[in-house]
Amino acid sequence: MEKKDTQWPLWEIFIQANPGIPHKHVGSLHAPDAELAIQNARDVYTRRNEGISIWVVEAKNIRASSPEDIGSFFEPANDKVYRHPTFYKVPDGVKYL
Amino acid sequence: MVKDEKKLLAEFQAKIDKGVKIEPKDWMPEHYRKQLIRMMSQHAHSEIVGMLPEGNWITRAPSLRRKAILLAKVQDEAGHGMYLYSAAETLGIDRTEMLEQLHTGKAKYSSIFNYPTLTWADIGAIGWLVDGAAIMNQTALAKGSYGPYSRAMVRICKEESFHNRQGYEIMCSLAFGTPEQKAMAQDALNRWWWPAIMMLGPSDDNSPNSAELMSWKVKMESNDSIRQRFIDRTVPQGDHIGLTFPDPLLKFNKETGHYEHGPINWEEFFNVVKGNGPCNKARLKARVDADKDGKWVREAAEAYAMKHTEKETLAA
Amino acid sequence: MEIHKALFEYCLRLADSSLILGQRLGEWCGHGPILEEDIALTNISLDFVGHATALLQYAAKVEGKGRTEDDLAYHRSEREFKNVLLVEQPNGDYAKTIARQFLFDTFQYYYYQALQESKDETLAALAQKSFKEITYHLRHSSQWVLRLGDGTAESHERIQNAINDLWMFTGDLFDMDEVDALLIKEGIAADPGQVKQKWNDHVAELFKKATLQMPAPTYMQRGSREGKHTEHLGYLLAEMQYLPRTFPDAKW
């Protein structure tokens, strides 16, 4: 039996542009394993000095919340204004708060 | 059920009208998904088939600087093809399937790449005219409603800006060069002008889907309007370097502020799309051969990955 | 032999090997086995064209006759090219390209490592810059030798055959003549003799990991230092040089 021809598994690529900032998703590519995924990411996504560090994750290993959950997941945070410092009144002239 | 669909559709449309991007897991009408897959894969195919006419000249580029620029440009096109395939994959089709559609002739790619690159000036003409026309289209698509497509387009537009310039720069050095070089530049313009105008697609007056695709922000602007902008911007560039456009009816209309052009040969366009262009067979064969010859390589890498744990691979 | 003549010749040798290999890799553009690899090969090709340009600029300066890097690349004939024989060999299938690349990358890695210590500041600086790229090239080709060697039966056979076919061109990498001797004495050139053992060890080690056989010692082809090439170079140059030679007065 002949094996089905593939273009290799899909990997999601995250690039850190500068020290001290988080890795950011930039796109995806195909690779047979992690080492080649990193090499390919270097060639595909950092050709114009876009990065100093690369993370690769095989796409099938990423789990995502679903759009239907937007209401129950994220809307309850809307009215919790007391989590934000601007919610609190501070008398005029008081500093370092 | 029907009512539900109506409600979803209304919400979907409202989102688009507000300028909120549609993301892969969001609900979307089947027709929207299908149209996007068709457009994005066509677009991706155009990038990788488009590598061929220019790739032709990498080994013959007339200076080391030009060689490096052309390599970098054609490489960008491979990258753009990749971004677009990946973006299309978020809609639930994999790259193998899209490539199969290309290789069997089921999927189309831009008609322009079925014309031959006969001289070095063609490399200039492609960058100046073909990339120039493509950028008009792409900047519009970057504002489209589908998140992954729009993000890929933003990245592509950023990278494309040098392509257009390097093409015009080649045309400049030829136009101001020796008489032979100038003749070469003029000849390239003669051959590429009409195909470049055509590649923006037929007039969309009688396309039944157009209204819906526009309201969904899949299509952003009519072909004719993009074409007009392309002509308006490009003609002065050609005039500036003393080249003549191969259209005796081309003239500037002071009242409208636009250029008017002669009739477009749509018969040629539809024939090239159908497979009767000078290079359709050669282009497709090159892609099919690359895929076929690469099969054992892809299999070897997969077999290796199966045999070795990732830890070992990274340590090697 | 005067030092500056030897230095000119030496720069040409380094430059030509990079240029010809860059040219060969450029042939792959648009035809790679998968899109990602197409991009990788083009990147490597670009690096080589870049090295060659810098080295030819320096060669032109050393020569001092007002020639440019393009004059040297486009207006020298077959016998004036001094690239090693290995890099002019045709691409063949992907296994042949990878085998050629790995054998050369390994050589260039150790050779440029040594060249970074050159007393000629320009060469040392160029070597330092190139060495980072070469390190990546070697990583890329090594990973592929492993995958093809230890992949499927077909890939194993293909890469083993490719290595066997190319082996006779590896001796040429380490040849020496009076140019090398003089510049080594002056502390300018790297000594290929000192690189040979490292090259051999690294190649043997990787082949072992990749389940590949080191070819048996064989009769080696030589001659690149005198510009004696295989037949392939002439075709490559005809293609590469035809435009500037057809229009010698033109600027591009």
Blueprint (SSEs and pairs):
The complex is a heterotrimer of chains A (97), B (316) and C (252).
Chain A: E1 10-16, E2 24-30, H1 34-45, E3 53-58, H2 70-74
Antiparallel strand pairs in A: 1-2, 1-3
Chain B: H1 2-18, H2 30-55, H3 64-89, H4 95-103, H5 121-141, H6 147-175, H7 179-198, H8 210-215, H9 223-240, E1 251-253, E2 258-260, H10 266-276, H11 280-307, H12 310-315
Chain C: H1 3-26, H2 35-63, H3 69-74, H4 85-88, H5 94-115, H6 121-149, H7 153-166, H8 178-185, H9 192-209, H10 232-246
Helix content estimate of chain A? 10-25%
Structural class given helices, strands, pairing of chain B? mainly alpha
The largest β sheet of chain B comes out as: 2 strands, antiparallel
- The SSE order of chain B reads HHHHHHHHHEEHHH
Give the N-terminus to C-terminus distance of chain A in angstroms.
72 Å
As a whole number of angstroms, the C-alpha radius of gyration of chain B is 21 Å
Q: In total, how many beta strands of chain B?
A: 2
Proportion of residues in extended strands of chain B = under 5%
Characterize the largest beta sheet of chain A: strand count, sense, and whether it forms a barrel. Answer: 3 strands, antiparallel
Please write the string of helix (H) and strand (E) elements of chain A.
EEHEH
Q: Largest sheet of chain A, order of strands side by side?
A: 2-1-3
The number of distinct helices of chain B, counting runs of at least 4 residues, comes to 12
Instruction: Please state the CA-atom Rg of chain A, rounded to the nearest Å.
Output: 22 Å
Oligomeric organization of the protein chains: heterotrimer
- Indicate the mean pLDDT of chain A: 89
In whole angstroms, how far apart are the ends of chain B? 56 Å
Uncertain stretches of chain A: none
> What does the average pLDDT of chain B come to?
93
Q: What's the count of strands of chain A?
A: 3
Quick rundown:
The complex is a heterotrimer of chains A (97), B (316) and C (252). Chain A is elongated.
Written account of the structure:
The complex is a heterotrimer of chains A (about 100), B (about 325) and C (about 250). Chain A has about 100 residues and is an alpha+beta fold. Chain A has two helices and three strands; from the N terminus they run ββαβα. Chain A is about 20% helix and about 20% strand. In chain A, strands 2-1-3 form a three-stranded antiparallel beta sheet, covered by helices on one side. The longest helix of chain A has 12 residues, at about 35-45. In chain B, about 70% of the residues lie in helices and about 0% in strands. Chain B has helices spanning about 1-20, 30-55, 65-90, 95-105, 120-140, 145-175, 180-200, 210-215, 225-240, 265-275, 280-305, 310-315; strands spanning about 250-255, 260. In chain B, strand 1 (about 250-255) and strand 2 form a beta hairpin. In chain B, helix 2 runs antiparallel to helix 3 (about 65-90) and helix 3 (about 65-90) packs antiparallel against helix 6. The longest helix of chain B has 29 residues, at about 145-175. Chain B starts with a helix and ends with a helix. Chain C is an all-alpha fold. Helix content of chain C is about 65%, strand content about 0%. Chain C is built from ten helices and no strands. The model of chain C has no long low-confidence stretch (mean pLDDT about 95). The interface between B and C is large, with 49 and 52 residues.
